[in-house]
Amino acid sequence: LQFLYFIGGLNMNICDDEGHPHSNDVRQLRSGESSPVSPMKGGSKGKKKGQPWGMPEDGVRLKLNNSLAQDAGPVEFRAMEGRTVKWYTCGPTVCDPPHLGHCRTYLTFDIIRRILENYFSYDVTLVMGVTDIDDRIIVRTRLLETLVEDGYSWQQSLQALSEVWGSCLCDIKTLELARKWLSANGVKVPDPKKTVPSTDDLPDNENKGLNTLPLTREMEKQFFRDMSRLGIKPPTVITRVTEYIPSIISFVEKIVSNGFAYESNGNVYFNIQAFTEKHTYAKLMPCSADDDGGLMGNCEGILHCNEIAKREKRHPKDFILWKKSKEAEPKWMSPWGYGRPGWHIECSVMASEILGEQFDIHSGGEDLKFPHHDNELAQSEARWCSDQWVNYFIHHGHLHIDGRNMANTLKSFVTIEGALERYTATQLRMLFLLHPYDGALMFCHNSMTVAQQQEEVFISFFKAVKDVLSLANGSLSEHQAWNMKLEGNLAAAFRNLRSEIHKALCNNFDTSTAMAHLKDLAKLTIDYIGKAGSAVKTLLINDIFEYARKVFVSFGLMEPGQNCISATEGDKAFEQTEVIEVVDSFLEFKKKLKLEICEKLDQNLPAEALKACIEEMCSELVEETLADKGIEVTDAANNTWAYKRPSPDRWPTPAERNVEQEKIAVLMNLPTLPPI
Known about the structure:
Layout: H1 2-14, H2 23-31, E1 63-64, E2 75-76, E3 84-93, H3 100-119, E4 123-131, H4 135-150, H5 154-164, H6 171-184, H7 213-229, E5 237-240, H8 245-257, E6 261-264, E7 267-270, H9 272-276, H10 294-298, H11 306-312, E8 320-324, E9 339-341, H12 345-355, E10 359-365, H13 369-384, E11 390-396, E12 399-401, E13 404-405, H14 416-422, H15 425-433, E14 441-443, H16 445-472, H17 484-506, H18 511-532, H19 538-555, H20 569-602, H21 607-628, E15 631-635, E16 640-643, H22 654-668
Parallel strand pairs: 3-4, 3-10, 4-5, 10-11, 12-14
Antiparallel strand pairs: 1-2, 6-7, 7-8, 8-9, 12-13, 15-16
């Protein structure tokens, strides 16, 4: 009866005599404010009023450092379409083998993408633009064709250029270096009739000039192969520049018709002065807005003549949208004659083509802020007549190799393939997780040692937890009452650390802080398991395990449903190599043992001498051969052993790097690079 009276009282409070709700009271209830309570008819007027319901405080929301709002600090992230995130990232320029610079970019953003998808439950559409036409690609294609005309195979030519690429910018010297590398490595000219691989099976892209597809498709294949080995998820959409030429031409035409670009001698330039009358230029690096054209000119391509451009431009800051093609260059017909796209226009077109005239996130490296990304923003706003093409621009920090900023001259020493010969993909990901994504990242032996040690902590944690849950086999221990000094303390620490991890991930994807808290949780859990013994509470352990697995899945260290740190394709290849080496060691041991026994038997040695010989060989196998492979026999009597992947002795020292550079310098009598 009291409940019915209460419901009746509410109805009387929020409805008028005809049963319609009072607008003011409904608005107050929706907002969480208190509503005046009228006494029930026939009830006691002196009845005590109940306490109004209070709206819980809003939780921590995801914030990130937006390069478009640098002075604001981390800003709240709000996707345009609910839980759907539209994201464009600059892809590789596919002209050379994948290197750690690529790893820095795409592993970094793979971590952020996975956190958005698996932790914050967003549905991410990721578009990656692949640059398969630019000046470097043209130069390298010419060099390849020249070496093939010399009689070298296409693969030999490609390998030679990969070895010497970046040693100098002059194509003639690079060609001579490649020839000397081939000669020094014993590659002879077998047949002067070698040809470049055919591209007849590829769609016709209307290119009437130099065919760059054999090179770009091979380099693109290597790139995505290495991305897979690193455990990086493929993008939702891949866009190649050569497949969007008609869209690029239409995009440029629209910018011209909007009054923000002009044609000059077959080239089309963006008009900075016209743009700045209505828009803001250099949003990402405002200090570069006053650049006199020097930075801009350096980014127009190595085949672009700045002196000619100065005569064609109306203002030094103007940048090129469409280039007039020269001899031995790719070329497509356009309203301005045969030409090819400029560098910046491609990303604007491909992103807009897939994601529309405005989207959520654009990403890239810190070094691309100006002029590339600033020019992307300008030409896109000019095309769409808008003031905000992208809502959030995120940039990762620089990569340093042994204290030196990543540069072309170091690429031959830090290919992804080379890195995966020394470390696993999981260890590389661990390194990235231990550092803020938008800060500088140091790649060296010491930093990788820290990453390996961190990996060992979590391997021990998941093993200990898995052992406890396996022993329990789904059943509960006899007593479930908590010891507040054991289970109580662990549960309280778990709640606190989980809250701190959430705050860290909401604070600009701060994985370094989150990893520190996860390490604390792992140590506390292992400590509890040791103290609780058989009385361990598996329900609590399982909660911790499921939470840790969720976070590790969000970081890409585990796959859904796995119970331990994941082995990526690169890790599996690493482990397969190790297994092969161990098997080869045993086969070699068997061969030596057989020969040694036959020799001793021929000498009619006593049994004791033969036994001592066999024991010596076995000791050598255990203490030297197997130890080198990371296998340690802990108790020979009981045949127990342990395995620990051997870490590389070290990354090549600066001195060793300089030796390699000196070899190339001697070949061409070039000046030696300064010490690293």
